[in-house]
Design a protein that fits this description.
Strand order of the largest sheet of chain B: 1-2
CATH architecture of chain A: Orthogonal Bundle
Largest sheet of chain B: 2 strands, antiparallel
Helix content of chain B: over 70%
Low-confidence stretches of chain B: none
Shape of chain A: elongated
Number of domains of chain B: 1
Order of helices and strands of chain A: HHH
Structural class of chain B: mainly alpha
Order of helices and strands of chain B: HHEEHHHHHHHHHHHHHHHHHH
Structural class of chain A: mainly alpha
Distance between the termini of chain B: 25 Å
Largest interface: A-B, 40 and 47 residues
Largest sheet of chain A: none
Mean pLDDT of chain B: 88
Strand content of chain B: under 5%
Strand content of chain A: under 5%
Mean pLDDT of chain A: 84
CATH class of chain A: Mainly Alpha
Oligomer: heterodimer
Number of strands of chain A: 0
Number of helices of chain A: 3
Shape of chain B: globular
Radius of gyration of chain B: 22 Å
CATH topology of chain A: Helix Hairpins
Number of helices of chain B: 20
């Protein structure tokens, strides 16, 4: 088993945990955590597909200047972008969670549908 | 051609300046945003006059595709750019009397920017970024006006949007590991993918597009977001968001996953999946709308049904049907914002949300009621309106299809009846003599009347002279279905410039 296989197994496990968490959890913070676990899994997958056995980090130095021996740098750039995007969506999600707690006195999504917290069905938004 | 990137970044200019200059004067964003959208319309029309229907590759930062990101100007993008800017301009005008903070204007500009980017970009990872930017803007905007309903809507949007975005990223990762490229034209031109891999990649990219295009089974957010956000933003979401997401669905499904592309081994299965999803969207959307009493939710479910029609037209891969789908899409993008703005106005004046509580409101505002009926007739597909020409063409071309096309045809015929039923009931209730005293507030409406009059003029003119829109739609459909032309315009122009692939 190579390092790449280990990465793939790990990524699959994290993706599975994330999807499972999103589907089964009812607390908004926990859902956000599950989303972040899912994102980490996808990022690992991205890093893994760019890896090549026996290659070096794609940084030109005096020792390693032959670009043939580098791993693929593009997935790493994609991971960086994906991390930034994930940071943004998580921040927005947390703000929504704060707002939700303030207006519903709960973080449970069950208060959507006749759960413990009642809400005014006929709120008028024009 | 030099000013195409300017067209893309115009909304960003206002997004950066709105909060900073909002400190000086709170009204800044209110008037600055529409000025920039107006500039966008101007540049868009200039581009249209000079270049239509030519297709052009625009290289960003000197990095030629497939190594760098490129924008692509084609008949699809001309209609996309002008449509998005027109809608953004008029929807903002309709919203101008409401007190909005500069952050609201910032987010609205960001939403417009992401929709433009989705239509213009030629790189699939770049597309993912634009979709994410758009979803952040939608989450924030849908919770911006109403604290409770809006926040619930934002949660309902946020969770599945993150899930499908990650599915799309997995699809992009698999695509990159199989083909080694992210450029849509280069992907299309690459060697054929294994059938199973192509199906998995296609499905994971589809999830995100279905979510944005309000298609079943990712449409759970639609009624809540439409109800919880300001009606002008709901209008923008159905008009701008629907237009951009359906166009990009067409680009990816018809061009990138076409029968001559690298997805050729899975293209039939993907087509069947789109047929099923579209048929389910039509039936579920229309029947939910029939059962619903909240006026904004009715319009939301009707959106799901209309987007299903467009997806059904794309699923056939038949040039005539695709051009009918484009007509239906443009019809929906102009009629639905109009209905949404009028519905928001009625909600505001009566302080009720259910249409059966709004009896008699159009007696107070007859012009609004008439405009509402005209847009509803066009959505229903009445003769001499724009929707009619789209639906009749679509029905004609579905007759030549297989079993799934016939099922879709049945769904369309059922949907016409159901749509007719709820729109007639709603319009009747608006004009009915009120049984009890209902309070209808009087309010100024000039800022609303002007935009909806413009939208209705577009619908009527394109309905009376269908050949105008049919000409555009035929160009777009041949642009979407011609995978080789797309590849040649992007990759060949690069190789002739001396870049080795």
């Amino acid at each position: 088993m190579t390092l790449q296989h280990l990465f793939f197994i790990n990524a699959a496990a994290l993706i599975f945990i994330g999807v499972f968490g999103i589907i089964t959890r009812k607390n908004i913070i926990k859902i956000l955590l599950a989303i972040n676990i899912l994102e980490t899994g996808v990022n690992l997958l991205l890093v893994a597909i760019g890896w090549r056995a026996g290659s070096f980090a794609p940084i030109v130095t005096r020792v390693h200047s032959d670009i043939v021996n580098f791993v693929d740098p593009l997935p790493q750039a994609m991971v960086l972008t994906a991390i930034v995007i994930a940071f943004g969506t998580t921040a927005v999600g947390l703000v929504v969670a704060i707002n939700y707690f303030r207006t519903h006195n709960s973080l449970e999504t069950t208060s959507f549908s006749g759960g413990s917290v009642k809400y005014d069905e006929d709120e008028v938004v024009s | 051609m030099k000013y195409v990137p300017i067209l893309l970044i115009l909304p960003l200019v206002s997004a950066f300046l709105a909060p900073a200059l909002g400190i000086v004067n709170k009204k800044f964003g209110r008037f600055f945003n529409p000025i920039l959208y107006g500039l966008g319309i101007f540049f868009g029309i200039l581009l249209f006059i000079n270049e239509y229907p030519e297709s052009h590759l625009i290289v960003i930062g000197g990095w030629r595709p497939p190594f760098g990101i490129n924008l692509y100007i084609s008949p699809l993008s001309y209609i996309g750019i002008i449509g998005i800017y027109l809608l953004a301009f008029f929807i903002h005008i309709a919203d101008i009397e409401n007190p909005r903070s500069s952050y609201y204007n910032l987010l609205f500009a960001l939403f417009v920017f992401s929709s433009l980017g989705v239509v213009l970009t030629g790189d699939i990872f770049n597309l993912f970024i634009f979709l994410e930017i758009g979803s952040v803007a939608v989450i924030a905007l849908s919770s911006a006006v109403s604290e409770r309903a809006g926040t619930r809507a934002a949660v309902k949007y946020m969770v599945p949007s993150n899930l499908v975005a990650m599915f799309m990223l997995i699809g992009i990762a698999l695509l990159y590991s199989s083909l080694g490229t992210l450029n849509i034209a280069h992907i299309t031109a690459s060697q054929s993918l294994n059938g199973a891999i192509a199906l998995v990649i296609g499905l994971s990219i589809f999830t995100s597009l279905f979510f944005e295009a309000e298609l079943f089974p990712f449409n759970t957010w639609v009624p809540d977001v439409y109800k919880g956000s300001a009606s002008t933003f709901s209008a923008a979401l159905s008009g701008i968001g629907g237009l951009a997401s359906a166009l990009v669905l067409g680009r990816l499904f018809l061009t990138m996953m076409g029968p001559e592309s690298s997805f050729k081994l899975a293209s039939n299965q993907l087509s069947s999946i789109l047929y099923i999803v579209a048929t389910a969207s039509i039936l579920i959307g229309e029947f939910s709308a029939l059962k619903e009493r909240d006026v904004k939710k009715v319009l939301a479910f009707s959106s799901v049904g209309q987007m299903g029609l467009v997806a059904l037209a794309f699923a056939t891969r038949n040039p005539l049907a695709v051009s009918a789908g484009i007509i239906l899409l443009v019809n929906h993008s102009f009629a639905k914002p109009l209905l949404m703005i009028v519905a928001g106005f009625f909600v505001k004046t009566t302080n009720e949300t259910r249409w059966d509580d709004m009896r008699g409101v159009a007696r107070q505002y007859p012009m609004m009621g008439v405009l509402f009926i005209i847009a509803a007739l066009s959505l229903m597909g009445m003769p001499f309106f724009m929707g009619f020409w789209g639906k009749i063409e679509l029905v004609k071309s579905l007759l030549d299809g297989g079993v799934l096309a016939w099922v879709g045809l049945g769904a369309i015929l059922i949907s016409v009846i159901v749509e007719g039923a709820y729109f007639v009931r709603m319009s009747h209730a608006f004009f009915e003599q009120p049984t009890e005293d209902i309070k209808i507030a009087k309010m100024g409406k000039m800022s609303i009347i002007i935009p909806i009059c413009v939208l209705v003029t577009v619908i009527i003119i394109l309905g009376i002279f269908p050949s105008i829109m049919q000409g555009f739609a035929n160009h777009i459909s041949s642009d979407l279905l011609n995978s080789n032309g797309y590849i040649n315009n992007i990759i060949q122009s690069v190789s002739s410039a001396g870049v080795e692939l």
